[in-house]
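User: Sequence in, structure out. Go.
Assistant: Echoing your sequence, followed by the structure tokens.
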Amino acid sequence: MFFVYIFAFYLAYKKPMRNFLAFIIVVILTLYEIYVFGRSNCLDSTFGTNGIVTTPIRYPGDDHGNSVALQPDGKIVVAGYSSDSNYSYDFAAVRYNLDGSPDSSFGINGIVVTEFDGDEYYNSSSANSVVIQIDGKIVAAGTGIRDFALVRYNTDGSLDSTFGCNGKVITDFDSNIDQGNSVVIQADGKIIVAGCSMNSNELYFFAAARYNSDGSLDSSFGTNGKVITDVGNGNDFGNSAAIQSDGKIVVGGSSSGDFAAVRYNTDGSLDNNFGCNGKVITDFSGGIDQGNSVAIQADGKIIVAGTSSSDIALVRYGIDGSPDSSFGILGKTTTDISDSVDIGNSVAIQADGKIVVAGGSYYNLTFYPSEYYYFEVVRYNSNGSLDSSFGSTGKVITVIGDGGSTCNSVAIQPDGKIVVAGVAYFSSAIFGAEDEFAVVRYLPNFNIGTMDFSDMDCPVLVCPNPIVKDAILEYILITQSRNIKIVKT
């Protein structure tokens, strides 16, 4: 394809007016590459292949990256799940070097798979969240055998025998289905896992547990280390947790189809200084709303990100749980990216206060046979407006695999680079569809509004790049002072 480009530009240079076909060739090839490969100058070329890394763990099988954490040395840890050929799902973790290569000092070729024993029906587990302790040990939390499940790894990926039973902990709440969705570590080293628990009436409630550093339940938290909170009138799902500077614990999620946030005191009791008796419920537009991720700003304000009526949605609360009127419209903002389904799965706050949300957008791209989800990253200014200095009007879409992809987690490096992790689907795999861990790293400050072949005598400008909806292609004729523009709609 490179030589076709050269030939086309040569023709255009020699006879620009008579060889307009050469320009059309360049346009078609450029569009094809942008659509199919999602090329843009936002991706960090020093990471993986053009900023992208995909990792198969067990083949054939399903491998999903659910959470990303950054070590102090810059290495990247992604946790999720991996299934074998019998569709038994296990905890999985991969550690990458700074350049995106697998870290051979971790597990086997950078990969660790951990099984929780159970009967055949319930022998499925998933790491939904991962965090790095101050001593470098890695804690992954999620669900195992229908209960809260935790694993702690040593820095080399081996199970930490000083934690729980041979490095693993299982916690049952109500003898039914319990799901750990988020793990955070307090300043004193105690571990908090938040999620949800189903009761005997098959209703889900917020659930949280606190563990001592050895994996035992902390009896000073809630009842025997556990807390269950009925937030609204229907199902309540605690999806994300964060710890304030004063040690109070904020859990964000959804309740009866609305955003929900709960704040606990350090002993697990509800904080009556937050919302109504420690709880806040936020409806966006009367549709279905789901809060998926929570983050706390340096000033103590609380951001919850998720989805509302198929758009990315954010709400910011003041310290007392009231909507922050200085953010968006009455504390809320929504972003439509694909005119279809847009999901905000994870939120992180930059050092400059800008807010980054990562998730998935549903598209039907011209050069693909079907509609798929693709990685999406959106950056907002501190007032909730889109950051026009990032991507195309604050938004970036990245195509990975030939069967779609979804981003589940985002983290910000100290140098400002943005690391996102999730899953990429490869429909053309030999044994059928194959899902792999996917990690992408973006540059912190860029604008992909124009791709400029400025070193060419007859430049082609493509706007925006990558193309998502509309495109403007500009070709400057050398021999005449006029422009030709093609608008694709």
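User: And one key feature?
Assistant: The first strand starts at residue 52 and ends at 55.
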